[in-house]
């Protein structure tokens, strides 16, 4: 009787062993013919996550205008590459293309972390010029995660903000930390121009891919 029971146990175990690969295949998405939606979700989810991290860094001051410009320039280039690859392959990415995009996104993710945790910080100051700079950065930060500002639009805006910041720093350095009335007037005009640019880019027809 013990021999019969042992035989039955072996039979059940062997059957379960044979069935395991079948269940494993059913539980795994088909990588070759996997739906375009699932392919895009992986790339697009990471892209949106990284844009959210950049927006948080802009809002908190962990990312300077120059750092944001560099990150968003890379993001814009990667978005163009993904778009071109999908256009050439009927809306899909090949496995090789997905691997390449994944490596680039990994590199960009590391750069975001490094820039947010280095010594460079955005400092605005408790004055009219500083408050306007901070307000404009907040508007940029709000436009990044909701897609109203594309990566390239953000890079152009932050390039302009970086230029204003450098001029403010140079003027103050030349005048013992202060701005003359003429300098404040000039910076105010530049900030007005940057403000109009932010508004246009957030309300034009261009939106970040999702």
Structural features, described:
It is a single chain. By secondary structure, the chain is mostly helical. It has one domain. It has seven helices and no strands. It has helices spanning 2-27, 36-60, 65-88, 95-116, 128-143, 151-174, 181-203. Helix 5 runs parallel beside helix 7 (181-203). The chain is elongated, with a radius of gyration of 26 Å. It starts with a helix and ends in a 7-residue tail after the last helix. The model is unreliable at 16-37 (pLDDT under 50).
Q: What labels describe this entry?
A:
210 residues, mainly alpha, elongated
Strand and helix map with partners:
Layout: H1 2-27, H2 36-60, H3 65-88, H4 95-116, H5 128-143, H6 151-174, H7 181-203
Helix pairs in contact: 2-4, 2-5, 3-4, 3-6, 5-7, 6-7
Short description:
This protein has 210 residues and is an all-alpha fold. The protein has 7 helices and no strands. The protein is elongated.
How far apart are the first and last residues' alpha carbons, in Å? 65 Å
- How do the helices and strands follow one another from N- to C-terminus? HHHHHHH
Q: Which percent range fits the helix content?
A: over 70%
Tally of separate helices:
7
The biggest beta sheet reads:
none
Low-confidence stretches: 16-37
User: In one word, what is the shape?
Assistant: elongated
Provide the residue-averaged pLDDT. 85
Q: Give me the secondary-structure category.
A: mainly alpha
Secondary structure tally: strands: 0
Count of discrete domains: 1
Q: Compute the gyration radius: what is it?
A: 26 Å
How much of the sequence lies in strands comes to under 5%
């Amino acid at each position: 009787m013990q021999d019969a029971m042992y035989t039955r146990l072996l039979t059940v175990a062997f059957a379960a062993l044979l069935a395991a690969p079948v269940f494993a295949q059913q539980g795994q998405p088909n990588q070759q013919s996997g739906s375009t939606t699932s392919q895009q979700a992986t790339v697009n989810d990471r892209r949106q996550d990284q844009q959210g991290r950049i927006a948080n860094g802009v809002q908190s001051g962990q990312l300077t205008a120059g750092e944001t410009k560099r990150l968003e320039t890379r993001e814009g280039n990667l978005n163009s590459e993904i778009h071109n690859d999908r256009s050439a392959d009927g809306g899909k990415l090949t496995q090789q293309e997905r691997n390449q995009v994944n490596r680039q996104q990994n590199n960009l993710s590391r750069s975001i972390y490094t820039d947010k945790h280095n010594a460079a910080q955005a400092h605005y100051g408790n004055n009219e010029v500083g408050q306007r700079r901070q307000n404009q950065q907040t508007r940029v930060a709000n436009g990044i995660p909701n897609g109203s500002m594309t990566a390239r639009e953000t890079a152009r805006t932050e390039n302009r903000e970086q230029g204003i910041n450098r001029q403010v720093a140079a003027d103050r350095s030349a005048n013992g930390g202060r701005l003359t009335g003429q300098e404040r007037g000039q910076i105010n005009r530049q900030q007005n121009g940057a403000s109009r640019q932010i508004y246009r880019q957030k309300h034009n027809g261009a939106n970040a891919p999702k």
